[in-house]
Amino acid sequence: MNNLLAISPEVQAAFDQNLPVVALESTIISHGMPYPQNVQMAKTVEQIIRDNGAVPATIAIMDGQFKIGLDDQDLERLASEKDVVKVSRRDLAEVFAKGKTGATTVATTMIGAHLAGIKVFVTGGIGGVHRGVEDSMDISADLDELGQTPVTVVCAGAKAILDLPRTLEYLETKGVPVVGYQTDYLPAFYTGTSEYKLNTRCDSPTEISRMMMYAEALGLKAGLLVTNPVPSEYEIPHEKIDAIINQAVEEANKQGIKGKDTTPFLLAKIVELTDGASLDTNIQLVYNNAKVGAQIAVAYQAEIK
């Protein structure tokens, strides 16, 4: 196990002192945002987590190991190198075996976090069931990972480019609780709400931490998905973003974009079509998720002491 993990001094000190730790993905750095905003965003997210009482652990794959906690040089490498692999569960063993540099998706960040013993993970939005799934069968590995890896994932909902009701149905099939944080409806990433009502609402980090504890005590293997709406001042109205998403999806279909290239293409096209507004929204929702995720990690750590 030690051979699989390279833990940074800051994260190791947190483990030694039983301090709350929050995992962060690295695909958002390498494939989700342009340089240099991606590096600035990553550093700001880490600082927000520290400011809220927890220790950040950005995860990537480098030199045949999960790196749990990245330094400035690692972040620059992920953000600027052209040959960084976007790594989901399918790719994990190959990237380790060949010593490639890999950026972790939601699925592989959950795997790395669980191996390291980290209970809470913050991201922007999860992957899900893609539109037109009846023809493509394109369903993100994130959903299966949520069904089998007990990590609490804080997000702003599934990415709005996806089929949201089918994503919710898939999560229900996998036994994944989808919790609305201070909301009764599924957040739609760029927009704080949607028409899809959730079964569970929690209004405080303590409520969520208690769900985590009971899930662990009951031996439940699924993760817990906490959906946290983007702050209202940064959201993009449904009628505007939905038309843009439809245009981006049409362009992807015309160009034959498929598989794991689909999400990066669509997000980049949406940034282009919104003149950068979607990127600003994406950054702000990640910042908001970092704050809530740190608060949940702090509450969980207080419960288990």
Instruction: State the fourth-level CATH superfamily.
Output: Indigoidine synthase domain
Order of H and E elements: EHEHHEEHEHEHEHHEHEEHEHHH
**CATH level-two architecture:** 3-Layer(aba) Sandwich
Low-confidence parts: none
Shape descriptor: globular
Structural class: alpha/beta
State the CATH topology: Indigoidine synthase fold
Index terms:
305 residues, alpha/beta, Indigoidine synthase fold, eleven-stranded mixed sheet, 11 strands, 48% helix, globular
Question: What do you see in this structure?
Answer:
With 305 residues, this protein is an alpha/beta fold. It has one domain: Indigoidine synthase domain (Indigoidine synthase fold, 3-Layer(aba) Sandwich), CATH 3.40.1790. The protein contains 13 helices and eleven strands. It has helices spanning 9-16, 27-30, 37-51, 72-80, 92-98, 106-116, 133-136, 141-148, 164-173, 205-217, 238-255, 262-273, 277-304, and strands at residues 5-7, 21-24, 55-62, 65-68, 85-87, 102-104, 120-122, 152-155, 178-181, 200-202, 224-227. Strands 1, 2, 3, 4, 5, 6, 7, 8, 9, 10 and 11 form an eleven-stranded mixed β-sheet that branches. Strand 5, helix 5 (92-98) and strand 6 (102-104) form a beta-alpha-beta unit. The chain is globular. The chain starts with a strand and ends with a helix. The mean pLDDT is 93.
